[in-house]
What does this fold into?
Amino acid sequence: MKFPAALLILVVLTTLATAQEHPAITAQPNTVFVGADGRFEANPDTALVQFNISAQEDTSRAAYERASKAAEQVRQILRANGIEPKAAEIGYFSLQPVYDYKTAKRKLVAYRVNANVSLKLKDFSKIAPIVQQLSESDVTENQSLNYTLEDMEAAKTRAVEDAYRRARESATAVARASGRTLGELSYASVDTFENIRVVNPLQARAMSTMRMEAAAPAPTEEFTPQSVVVTAHVNAMFTLR
It folds into this structure.
């Protein structure tokens, strides 16, 4: 079957279920419009340990001093593991009154200090001892451990390259099947998606009740951190010769 060159419009579109909406593209004569998904998977290169320092006392000064002592214990733990305290970041710090609302007139009963701390580690061998020591010190709350990829932009680029390669292969196959030759790229749109999950959440209070022996393996020992997956969707229009 022959197709008049002036009327030949080939459209092949494959969309990702979670892809964002794209503006409508008007297909041009002698073009092929294709869509393809790409993927890049990499091992995480950074561990993000997060926890809270909290203290509650009858006076604001006492709460502040208790939180300061807890922070000093955290600094000592970091130094003991070869990490400078300045490597940890404070996300927020608050000093708030605590009220008793059981009566019609609220009653001031205490003051509470809260601070959120984040620590990025490149050396995964330090994760287990730091998490255990923070738990056993009983000065932190709500510990969480998240593995992530620091150079995310490079991973996105690799995913886009994979998606474009697939799109071009599809366009080439359509051109070949119709007896034509694939020409130049005339239009393209790109979406990228990160699949980053929290891995191995650890609650400080639960850990403190376990009091693991020194010889006991850490909860994360011998397990492999989950891979970081970045996907991309490329829509591309090529001319046909």
In short: The mean pLDDT is 81.
